[in-house]
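Please fill in the sequence for the structure shown.

STRUCTURE ENCODING:
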């Protein structure tokens, strides 16, 4: 560092990372700021620069001056070796500027104290660190060396884990080149070892968070979901709670989005492409981040989804890493995983990206959809991201479609070959023959009742939380996957009754299916008609 460097740095006066003192007569104040820099984003402490006038005046440095500085530095705990530079001031012989450069806090490190007190930097001011923040950082430092996710999870074995979830996730990792192909044929015991989920033959807490079937012993494996009327929390429209492992909570959260957010669709090729008013890829990324980077050690912890008329908020217990703020998180940054083992497994299985790229993908998706930029917030207990919903369009009576009776809607499904696979011909997606309700033959009530029962059973199996294709086929006692897709599932997707969680990847091994608003309305009508 040179005097010219200092001249450039002090042009904007004191900042969050710059503290100026005229002389070491303010040494104790300077050391408090040094402690604050160490606990915040780092900074530069200068003696010999006058605050306000920003004149580089320097001071005479004696052996006694050096001893005083060394003595005050020993009051910083934990002990730290700080480089000190003494820079000659031009045209002032015997006068020097004393420069002390301090690195910022690293997430999980023990907080520093000076003379027994911890300090923080708030803008250009040094303040005493609040007690709750200090205690939180002490706890974090302990968790860094013995994190919750790496602690042994007592009384669970591999047989308590959801093997289907494990193998589906591993398959994704193999397909994307993040796991070796040999993983596909490994035993479940071997897979959890490869994913570093065991320690001395016992499962870690991370295994429970990701794959445990029965999570009743972990109240923090909780997702709170609410739809509020208006723009505040005065009145509930829907209020739900889901408990489970990471994948179950991700499915439950996405089902809640599909239930309460508007959905539109268009035919792409031979498939209907569903789009939520807020891109599902952005919501899924945000929810994945919340479920992965949250605090797990507290039994009262949770993740929350709140849907208002004008916005959607996703929150999780915890704090942003010290390296990031609500502003810098929006820029390109490294990945600062608060649960690195869980994050590594989600990266290997493609549910999470590395290098902090997930945030930029969320922002890009919202921009492409013509939505405002999402915003991050934190209050010391929670971190949240806010997505803004599109402005509601005025109701247009001229373009409103008539509310057809259920039987007429079932007639439309008949053109999609929604029939009993045992008696119908295979569905031909390439040559669907649309039927005009105004010119079609009289409706066959017996056939309609049969199809209505099939449709009701299918929609009921999907339910509020969504489900996968295996559960649907088992529930309908069907074994022919191809016939089930062509005769049941694809027609309902094409008609907009059912939506896919991964609409951009129909063959995704973790694919789940959800009822759209149109599908829920159809189910309600079918329930009433068959009472």
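FILLED IN BY: designer on duty
SEQUENCE:
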């Amino acid at each position: 560092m040179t005097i010219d460097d200092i001249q450039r740095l002090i042009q904007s006066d004191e900042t969050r990372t710059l503290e100026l003192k005229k002389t070491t007569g303010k040494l104790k104040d300077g050391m408090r700021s040094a402690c604050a820099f160490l606990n915040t984003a780092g900074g530069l402490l200068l003696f010999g620069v006058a605050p306000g006038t920003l004149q580089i005046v320097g001071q005479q440095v004696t052996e006694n001056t050096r001893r005083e500085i060394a003595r005050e530095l020993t009051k910083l705990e934990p002990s730290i070796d700080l480089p000190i530079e003494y820079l000659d001031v031009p045209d002032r012989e015997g006068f020097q500027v004393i420069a002390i450069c301090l690195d910022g806090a690293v997430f999980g490190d023990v907080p520093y104290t000076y003379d027994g007190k911890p300090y923080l930097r708030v803008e250009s001011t040094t303040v005493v660190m609040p007690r709750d923040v200090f205690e939180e950082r002490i706890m974090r430092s302990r968790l860094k060396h013995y994190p919750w996710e790496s602690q042994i999870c007592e009384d669970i074995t591999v047989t308590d884990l959801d093997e289907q979830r494990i193998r589906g996730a591993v398959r994704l990792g193999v397909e994307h080149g993040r796991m070796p192909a040999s993983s596909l044929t490994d035993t479940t015991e071997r897979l959890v070892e490869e994913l570093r989920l065991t320690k001395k033959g016992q499962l870690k807490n991370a295994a429970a968070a990701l794959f445990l079937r029965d999570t009743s012993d972990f109240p923090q494996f909780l997702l709170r979901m609410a739809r509020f009327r208006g723009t505040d929390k005065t009145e509930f429209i829907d209020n739900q709670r889901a408990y489970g492992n990471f994948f179950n909570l991700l499915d439950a959260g996405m089902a809640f989005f599909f239930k309460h957010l508007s959905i539109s669709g268009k035919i792409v090729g031979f498939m209907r492409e569903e789009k939520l008013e807020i891109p599902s890829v952005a919501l899924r990324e945000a929810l994945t981040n919340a479920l992965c980077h949250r605090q797990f050690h507290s039994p009262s912890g949770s993740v929350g989804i709140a849907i208002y008329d004008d916005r959607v908020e996703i929150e999780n217990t915890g704090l942003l890493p010290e390296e990031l703020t609500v502003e810098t998180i929006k820029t390109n940054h490294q990945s600062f995983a608060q649960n690195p083992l869980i994050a590594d497994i989600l990266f290997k299985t493609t549910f999470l990206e590395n290098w902090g790229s997930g945030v930029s993908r969320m922002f890009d998706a919202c921009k492409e959809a013509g939505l405002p930029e999402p915003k991050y917030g934190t209050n010391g207990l929670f971190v949240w991201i806010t997505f803004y919903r599109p402005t509601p369009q005025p109701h247009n009576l001229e373009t409103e479609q008539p509310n057809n009776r259920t039987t007429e809607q079932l007639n439309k499904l008949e053109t999609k070959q929604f029939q009993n696979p045992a008696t119908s011909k295979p569905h031909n997606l390439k040559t669907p023959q649309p039927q005009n309700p105004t010119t079609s033959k009289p409706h066959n009530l017996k056939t309609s009742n049969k199809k209505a029962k099939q449709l009701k059973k299918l929609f009921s199996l999907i339910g509020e939380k969504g489900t996968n294709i295996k559960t649907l086929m088992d529930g309908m006692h069907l074994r022919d996957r191809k016939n089930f897709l062509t005769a049941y599932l694809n027609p309902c997707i094409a008609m907009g009754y059912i939506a896919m969680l991964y609409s951009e990847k129909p063959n995704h091994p973790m694919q789940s299916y959800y009822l759209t608003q149109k599908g829920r309305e159809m189910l309600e009508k079918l329930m009433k008609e068959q009472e």
